[in-house]
């Protein structure tokens, strides 16, 4: 069994929090205390997807980071399978989450960009959209999201409660999630005021509340012997880069931004370790699959001081960062952990993507995908267990951004084609020899560029809300 790794430094402060009915349970988890083990909820595994907001591959010790400590994630990687080519849905928040939730890549996903609504929330998932939570709930799973939603306010069809979620706690709106000491937070659809933080006071750190909600949900499901699906959409380490305690980094000769960022990554690591300890305490660790990933690569340009300090591209191995189409934006730090099922110590470069998780979770949960719903994903069940990754023709991404306008990328085999600007030329890279995407081979291999463009056209469904990157005017930015 894998217990949380004791940090080689004093733990970060956990302030006393108001309004939490099970704070004692969290303390018990961290200290390794608690009640006797509960039974396993049948043969179907519990399913947890932990999505870290803006973490880069290079932020994690298992991927080579040596300044930021991530001992729990490193141990989970060692006890499970670490993926070198795990791909997000696309390189910003809302569409990346929507890709996971719908099982669709960006050629078909209803959300292909961040689109803000006023006064709060993002463009919602459409009425009747099939989701992974809805599928699992229909098969008897208890479902929850904690952290950041960003797929529709409560009065829209994208509400968590209209898309298969039983329990929600955290931020509905992505803009609101930038505040780690918020004036309020959502408990289901009820707004809970946090007057202790009003006026810029920093009394209650939101991650403490989110972690406690996750602990409560898992505790309740385990005690009731029910299979559960938890989408742990952590806001860490997205900006604003705020932390209630810099911990072991406080005395480092670093800037406050560097100290805060490192502390945020380590806070996430500590909370993930506590969650695994709870699974063990409840006797359900061997029947729980944990998949961890970042959502879109680092928010820092690798040429900035902080990008260089933490070497987020791992010595320049990956090019690019958030809001781009290069590998540094699309490849994520990712692992799967399921004792006795997912091979321990395995490291694989075989690719998969967020849209594969819906059919994977459906198969594991013995849940039926509606017959008339066509997902872009492939089940990873055999791959998770040590077999080969599914074979497919391509992986496809697009993103609609201010500035460059709609952009595209497609990977087929070891070839990667990128259209980094709307209406612009397509670049071509051989990832088997040039993972850093430094040598554009488009002029040398025009036949492969032609093939890539044809597949890009095949991959996407025309939609007036999402202009074709091949012909769109980058100066026209749609706010829909």
From TrEMBL:
EC main group: hydrolase
E.C. designation(s): 3.1.6.1
Gene3D superfamilies reported in the protein's UniProt record: 3.30.1120.10, Alkaline Phosphatase, subunit A
Alphabetized UniProt keyword annotations: Hydrolase
Alphabetized GO MF terms: arylsulfatase activity
Superkingdom, natural source: Bacteria
UniProt region (Disordered), positions on chain: 458-480
Domain Sulfatase N-terminal: 45-364
Family in the record: Belongs to the sulfatase family.
Name by which UniProt lists this protein: Arylsulfatase
């Amino acid at each position: 069994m894998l217990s949380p790794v004791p940090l080689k430094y004093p733990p970060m402060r956990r302030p006393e929090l108001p309004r939490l009915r099970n704070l004692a349970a969290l303390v018990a988890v961290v200290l390794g205390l608690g009640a006797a083990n509960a039974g396993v909820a049948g043969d179907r595994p519990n399913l947890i997807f932990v999505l870290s907001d803006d973490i880069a591959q290079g932020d994690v010790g298992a991927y080579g980071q040596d300044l930021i400590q991530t001992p729990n994630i490193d141990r989970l990687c060692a006890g499970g399978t670490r993926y070198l080519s795990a791909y997000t849905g696309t390189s910003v928040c809302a569409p990346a989450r929507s890709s996971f939730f719908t099982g669709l890549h960006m050629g078909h996903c209803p959300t292909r960009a961040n689109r803000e609504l006023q006064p709060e929330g993002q463009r919602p998932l459409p009425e009747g959209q099939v989701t992974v939570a809805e599928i699992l709930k229909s098969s008897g799973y208890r479902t929850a999201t904690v952290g950041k939603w960003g797929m529709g306010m409560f009065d829209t069809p994208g509400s968590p409660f209209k898309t298969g979620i039983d329990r929600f706690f955290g931020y509905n709106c992505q803009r609101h999630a930038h505040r780690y000491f918020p004036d309020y937070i959502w408990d289901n659809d009820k707004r809970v005021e946090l007057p202790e933080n009003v006026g810029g006071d920093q009394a209650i750190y939101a991650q403490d509340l989110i972690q406690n909600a996750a602990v409560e949900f898992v505790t309740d499901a385990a005690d009731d012997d029910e299979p559960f699906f938890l989408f742990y959409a952590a806001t860490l380490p997205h900006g604003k880069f705020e932390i209630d305690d810099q911990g072991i980094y406080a005395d480092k000769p670093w800037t406050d931004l560097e100290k805060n960022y490192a502390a945020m990554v380590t806070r996430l690591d500590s909370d993930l370790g506590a969650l695994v300890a709870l699974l063990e305490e409840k006797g359900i660790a061997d029947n729980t699959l944990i998949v961890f990933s970042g959502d879109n690569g680092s928010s820092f340009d690798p040429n900035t001081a902080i990008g260089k300090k933490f070497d987020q591209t791992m010595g320049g191995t990956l090019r690019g960062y958030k809001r781009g189409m290069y590998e540094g934006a699309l490849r994520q730090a990712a692992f799967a952990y399921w004792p006795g099922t997912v091979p321990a110590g395995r490291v694989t470069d075989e690719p998969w993507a967020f849209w594969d998780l819906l059919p994977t979770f459906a198969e594991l949960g013995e849940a039926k995908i509606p017959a008339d719903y066509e997902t872009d994903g492939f089940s990873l069940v055999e791959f998770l267990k040590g077999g080969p990754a599914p074979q497919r023709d391509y992986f496809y991404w697009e993103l609609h951004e201010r500035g460059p306008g709609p952009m595209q990328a497609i990977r087929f085999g070891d070839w990667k084609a990128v259209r980094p600007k709307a209406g612009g030329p397509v670049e071509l890279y051989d990832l088997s020899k040039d993972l850093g995407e430094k040598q554009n081979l488009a002029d040398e291999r025009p036949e492969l560029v032609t093939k890539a463009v044809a597949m890009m056209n095949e991959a996407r469904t025309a939609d007036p809300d999402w202009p074709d990157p091949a012909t769109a005017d980058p100066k026209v930015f749609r706010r829909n």
